[in-house]
Structure formats: structure tokens, C-alpha cells
Amino acid sequence: MLAMPPTGRVTATNVPVRLLLQQAYQVQPFQIVGAPNWTASDRFDIVAKAPDGAPPEQYRPMMRNLLADRFKLKAHMETREMPLYALVVARADGKLGSNLSPAKTDCDAARGRRAGGPPPAPPQPGQPIECGFMIGIGTMNAGGMAMADLARSLSGFVNRFVIDKTGLSGKYDFQLTYTPEGRGLPGVPVAPPIGADVPAADPNGASIFTALQEQLGLKLDSQKGPVDVLVIDSIEQPTAD
Length: 241
What we know:
The chain is α+β, with helices and mostly antiparallel strands. The chain is built from 6 helices and 11 strands. Helix 1 runs antiparallel to helix 3 (59-70).
């Protein structure tokens, strides 16, 4: 588990270094190049406290400093030509799926009206969300979401960078149900209760590729293009305190 609350206290419990790299540099696993195997297999507990009054945008630079200090990380960003997916409208006539529609709520205006007030209650299972984005195991529920944001979110689920080429402007509501590959959420270690386990994926269920096309009227088109990657020059296992 990795928590970055507004208090400035960053807590990582039983997490691999790859997850810390993802958070610190805002990249997906496939965007990390040259990391040794132990960064995915070994788990660590880390507690760090930001200086009082530090704004949230400073948390990631501080995480990078922590990685450089405790793991002797040396890394750089570069752009490489890689396989990627373009999110496009599936049908030639432009018709969208039954689970995708223009947003019913002006979320920017709604957030303005709620300024200083409590956030809306989360939707009940199976119910649409008014404004926001919720991910569960095999589900996505969005209200007032741009296609570019959906494309970025899909990257972690299909192990490739996804770019928006739908040509759809504005914000959309949608609900997506699919059968995930493996267990859990992308990049998030599963920690089931003692004696329990996360159900395995249904091999006969719809993949995320099929669900996108059947439910949203969108598809992922395989292409090549420039992708920013984090190149690990060197990294070391930390010594005990």
C-alpha cells in the first residue's frame, strides 16, 4: 500500500520499488527501462514526512530525492519509438456504444458550487457516478471525463501507452465492465486478507479490448510512436537502518 495524504506524510507498506518509481516519476511499468528484477520482487516499508507547509506538488520531487538517497537511484527521461495504442471510434458512422454518452452534468460548475463543502457521496454499486472516476477490479465508472483522460487511464491496463485519437471533444459519462487479466489493479500489489484470495479472472469473460468496443463503441488501434520512458542508469538495494 502507498498513501500520499494531504498531511505530507508518505507511507509505503510492503511495496516494490517499481511502484515508488511509478509514483515519483508519473510513469507506467512499461515506461521503466533498465530496472533490475529485484525492484519488482523485493518489498519495502518506507515512512517519510514532508516539511510543514510543503504543497502537494512537491511530494513527487521529494520522493525522487528519497529514491536517490536510500536506493542510490540515478535515472533520466528520454523519448523512444515504441508500440502504442490509439483510442479511436470503432464504427465508421461514428455511433458510440450504449454505455458512453455526453456528460449530463457540468462538473466544473458543480465543483464551483460545492467549493468548501463536502464531496458528493460515492455511487452505489452499479450506479453511474455524477462527476469523477472510479476504478474497481474489472470495472470503470466515470462522470464528466475527457477522452484524453480515458486514454491515459487505459495505459496501465493494456501495458502500452494510449493516445486519444477519437476526435471526441467535451466530457463523457461511461460505465465499463470487463474481465481483467491476472489479479488486482495495474501497478497495485494485491494484499488479500489472511486466508482469503482475490478471485482469478474469468477466462470466458470479455477482455478490456472487447468491452471497449461492445460497451463504449471505442477500440484500441495498434500503432508505433514516441513514448517518454524512465531509464534506470543505476539503483542499489538499501542497507538496513
